[in-house]
Amino acid sequence: MMLFQANQGSGDAAAGLLVIGAVFLGGLFFYFLPSIVAVASSHPQTAAIVLLNLFLGWTFVGWVIALVWAVMNYDKPAIQTTQQPVVQSPRAADYNYKKI
Q1: Quick check: is 99 in a domain?
Q2: Handedness of CA 11, 12, 17, 21 (dihedral sign)
Q3: Are residues 39 and 21 in the same domain?
Q4: One domain, residues 20 and 39
Q5: Residue 43, Cβ neighbours under 10 Å: how many?
Q6: Residue 58: which residues within 8 A CB-CB, separation 6 or more?
Q7: 67 shares its domain with 38
Q8: CA distance 85 to 20
Q9: How many domains is the chain partitioned into structurally?
Q10: Are 36 and 21 part of one and the same domain?
């Protein structure tokens, strides 16, 4: 009877460690959620968001600020090619060129 209880106890300990490990990993994921969002969206200020999340994420206010900053829309600079129209001066347009 004693052997059965020892095996049962070690099984419970292993299950408990598994649950603790899952809760720990879930907590890490939740804690670094602002950083994950910033990296996934290629935010231009990802490094600053990660540092804010790392050092002030333990405070609720720091975590919320990091999350809001990570999900904020930012304007990606669009590559614009502009062509200047060719404009003739008014005098050049008035000339009538004749072939000689």
Answers
A1: no
A2: positive
A3: no
A4: no
A5: 20
A6: 31
A7: yes
A8: 68
A9: 2
A10: no
Residue keyed to tokens 């919320």: 64
Chain position carrying tokens 């900053």 = 69
Q: Which domain holds residue 65?
A: 32-72
Helix orientation angle between 2-31 and 33-40, rounded to the nearest 10 degrees = 50
Run means of pLDDT, 10 residues per run, the chain, 100 residues = 53 90 97 96 95 96 97 74 66 62
C-alpha 33/C-alpha 42 separation (Å) is: 14
Q: Which of 77, 59, 61 is nearest to 69 (CA)?
A: 61
| Amino acid found at 70 | A
Q: Are the beta carbons of 53 and 35 closer than 8 angstroms?
A: yes
pLDDT of residue 74: 76
User: ∠52-58-63 over CA atoms, to 5°?
Assistant: 55
